Amino acid sequence: MHNIKFIRENSELFDNEMKKRKIEGISKIILDLDNKLRSFKTKSQVLQNKRNLVSKKIGQLIRESKNVSTLQEEVKNYKNSLINLEVSIKKTNLELDKILINLPNLLDNEVPIGFSEKDNKLIKTWGKKPSFEFSPKDHVTIGEKFNQMDFKVGAKLSGTRFVLLKNEMALLERALTSFMIDINVLEFGHLEVSPPYLVNSEALIGTGQLPKFADDLFKTESDKWLIPTAEVPLTNIVRNEILDEDKLPIKLVSHTPCFRSEAGAAGKDTRGMIRQHQFSKVEMVSIVKPDESNQELLRLTKCAEKILQKLKLPYRVVILCSEDTGFSSSKTFDIEVWLPGQQNGKGEFREISSCSNCKDFQSRRMNARFRDKETKQLSFVHTLNGSCLAVGRTMIAIIENYQQSDGSVIVPDVLQKYMYGKKVIFLDQNENF
RNA sequence: GGAGAGGUGGCCGAGUGGUUUAAGGCGCACGCUUGGAAAGCGUGUAUAGUAGCAAUACUAUCGAGGGUUCGAAUCCCUCUCUCUCCGCCA
């Protein structure tokens, strides 16, 4: 949510910034409504003041047993005007809010202007792509060959874009989760949180998924929504709070399933586990003071990279261009992992983490502030989030990068202690039902 | 799911229609006092918005939203959360 005062004082700058998001000339519409609203408010407040004064007088006169009918008539007249004004105020307010709540965040100056993911800017590349003496398979071929990844049963139970993992695949998911959380807690110093997976609309408005992106979410019949990411509950922890400066920064990590309807992705990534309605993710959220958020975004990105480095999975980091940067984000680094089994064995980089600095965009929607210890001033906190990592896609990356000619998969060193000491998985396809 | 009791400032807590401009206390900040501290005394201590260059004034907010009234923390309705008991349940 944007600061209306900022728009008033920087309307031209604001329009230029919104243009990067393909929104043209919006400030005039906003400011016209704003002017209208303020004039209604001023009029209303003058009348309210008069009403309050006369009502008080009536109280005094009644105590003195004097006649008050003339004054009562007078107040009734104010009341009629007030009712009309209140209707106008509400209507104008709704119109203004509807516009503001649907406007995306301002982009950071470092965000490249672009029109597709081709315009994302490469920041760095890490690791060496594995070379195979055979044509590398994708995770579906391997997972189904060993009967550990069952899309048929997934579809039977729930429909398309659901999967059932068996045996070592289920273990791998659990192992990865534990490994990622352990590093987050022990090395990064993040506080582990286990949040609700169902949230109310207010929470989703706070982080920016609502009202604009309702189609991407699953809604229950009791007006609760399944979380599309742990970012939603974790960030909303500070909604409507005034935090002591001492409490900041708050650095959280959480493992949750994520639920997405993938409404806009019909026909896209239909093969395999890359794009599912339900997937597991370890998510980091930071609540920081404004002058710390740039640094914190770099730190979060490094945290996610560190996991990939420990797993020895090759990746690259890109900064998203204007078109690709999410609604709530001012600047986003995506980490893309190398998946050698994709494109019929040619391989491709696919997003495995997304780290965003939302600055004060979410905190304004949530009304999340902190009090400066020295000046006692209130300011909006900055909020950041990043995956560390998407567990499903990490499984894919391990299978495809660590596969051997017989289809078995080497377990990365750091995971072995989480996998009953196994060094290789997918050796026997007859173990499973 | 059923029955009941509740939600008042940073915290405790008074307040059942008009001297409430939310009493009183605690905490916190500053000042006086002191060799220093404590105690004592005094002053101050919410958020948002509107008008104004500003000092300041005004408006709204007593869980949320409606309603009644000249006037609502107080009366009515809806919702929500907390607590107690019962039922069900991992």
Textual characterization of the structure:
With 433 residues, the protein is an alpha+beta fold. The chain folds into two domains: 4-101, Serine-tRNA synthetase, tRNA binding domain (Helix Hairpins), CATH 1.10.287.40; 117-425, 2-Layer Sandwich (BirA Bifunctional Protein, domain 2), CATH 3.30.930.10. Helices cover 41% and strands 20% of the residues. The chain has helices at residues 4-9, 11-19, 26-63, 69-101, 139-145, 151-157, 167-187, 201-207, 231-235, 293-310, 342-345, 361-366, 391-401, 413-416; strands at residues 121-126, 149-150, 164-165, 191-192, 198-199, 225-226, 242-244, 250-259, 278-288, 315-319, 331-339, 348-359, 369-371, 378-380, 382-390, 409-410, 424-425. An eight-stranded mixed β-sheet has the order 1-10-11-12-15-9-8-4. It has a three-stranded mixed β-sheet with strand order 7-13-14, with no helix packed on it. β13 and β14 (378-380) form a beta hairpin. The longest helix is centred in the N-terminal third of the chain and has 38 residues, at 26-63. The radius of gyration is 27 Å and the shape is elongated. The two termini are 52 Å apart. The protein binds one RNA strand of 90 nucleotides through residues 38, 41-42, 44-46, 48-49, 51-52, 54-60, 62-63, 68-69, 71-76, 78-79, 242, 376, 378.
Quick summary:
The chain has 433 residues and is an alpha+beta fold.
Largest sheet: 8 strands, mixed
What CATH architecture label of the largest domain applies?
2-Layer Sandwich
Strand-residue fraction? 15-25%
Q: Extract low-pLDDT stretches.
A: none
Number of strands: 17
Task: Tell me the number of helical segments per DSSP (H or I, 4 or more residues long).
Answer: 14
Alpha-carbon distance between the termini? 52 Å
Helix content: 40-55%
Global outline? elongated
CATH superfamily of the largest domain: Bira Bifunctional Protein, Domain 2
CATH class of the largest domain: Alpha Beta
**Strand sequence of the main sheet, in spatial order?**
1-10-11-12-15-9-8-4
Mean pLDDT, to the nearest integer, reads: 93
CATH topology of the largest domain: BirA Bifunctional Protein, domain 2
Structural class: alpha+beta
- Supply the number of structural domains: 2
